[in-house]
Design brief:
By secondary structure, the protein is an alpha/beta fold. Helix content is 22%, strand content 14%. It is built from 8 helices and 9 strands. Helix 2 (115-126) crosses helix 4 (161-170).
Length: 316
């Protein structure tokens, strides 16, 4: 089943779903569960990666999608980066408008996910405008570079034209890599950036706030930041041009704390920038159990679950 209980997919008039055309990843920063360095302003420790842990479990259960092992240091059993062409047509079969978290078990920005495969992912999203796709990456620089590719054919095409042309090729039936069910003529039907695709990046510590700059360079109708797990204050974070800010504490048996003063500071930044705020959870260390997601136990002024302006319900 693709339906999910992830809180920020629960938009009015839509079904919350996940879609994993790729699985697997490699840890690159503390938000992935790596230790923090001495100069980080937060409590050191090693957290956990939910997706990596889940992949190990699914491998043991015999799930076909999770039999490719990753690097034992940066990944784990069943969590090797793997592309799944058979999963690409799934959204074409969903009848109800859905809010879709893309790659809850991977990162589309990973270097081992090919550009060609990404054009197929984007072609599916372009041909299913009834759905809204939320893409979250810790590698926004690569995503920005691919989606704004410069012309290299000598014809002087505008930035990004080659990527969109390759999306059209993914919707062409005589292409060996054709995605079954896509309608030909996609290039001339699509708007750019795609009106149903939100682009986001994760920022857990202040030293990663430059990811917001790469996000701003990415073509998107909605740009969002996930400060989850929030592992320290983000004094350098610039929310200019950012439509949505998700805030959340870490959960799991080895979770690190999220201090509420960090949350209040971020909310203040968001209000000043006109950025919508979605507080997802306060974390296991704050709650003492679970993930701190029961907002009836929260301070009232943190019970905020907003969506970007005009995006609270499915577009007509």
């Amino acid at each position: 089943m693709s339906e999910t209980d992830i809180e920020w997919t629960k938009r009015a008039g839509t079904v919350g779903r996940t879609w994993n055309p790729t699985t697997g990843c490699d840890k690159i920063s503390a938000g992935c569960g790596l230790p923090m360095s001495d100069d980080d302003q937060g409590e050191d420790g090693i957290g956990g990666c939910y997706a990596c842990t889940m992949a190990k479990r699914l491998k043991a259960m015999g799930s076909a999608k999770y039999q490719n092992d990753g690097n034992p240091v940066t990944s784990g059993p069943g969590f090797g980066v793997t592309m799944h062409p058979d999963v690409l047509p799934e959204p074409l079969r969903w009848r109800k408008p859905s809010t879709v978290f893309v790659n809850s078990m991977s990162d589309l920005g990973h270097a081992r996910i090919t550009r060609e495969f990404l054009t197929r992912v984007w072609a599916v999203m372009a041909d299913t405008r009834q759905h809204t796709y939320q893409i979250l990456t810790k590698r926004p620089r690569r995503m920005a570079r691919i989606l704004t590719d410069d012309c290299n054919c000598g014809a002087g095409h505008q930035s990004g034209v080659h990527f969109r042309s390759e999306m059209e090729w993914a919707a062409t039936p005589h292409n060996p890599m054709y995605v079954p069910g896509l309608k030909h003529g996609l290039y001339h039907r699509m708007e750019w950036p795609l009106p149903n695709v939100w682009m986001g990046t994760s920022i857990e510590l202040d030293k990663h706030t430059d990811r917001a700059d790469d996000l701003r360079a990415t073509p998107a109708v909605v740009r969002f930041i996930s400060a989850e797990p929030l592992l320290g204050p983000l004094p350098s974070l610039d929310l200019t041009g950012i439509d949505w800010l998700i805030i959340g504490g870490e959960s799991g048996p080895r979770s690190r704390p999220m201090h509420l003063d960090w949350v209040y500071e971020l909310i203040g930044k968001a209000r000043a920038a006109g950025t919508a705020v979605f507080v997802k959870q306060l974390g296991q260390r704050w709650a003492g159990t679970g993930k701190g997601g029961d907002w009836s136990t929260w301070p009232e002024d943190l019970r905020i679950r907003e969506y970007p302006a005009g995006r609270t319900a499915v577009a007509a």
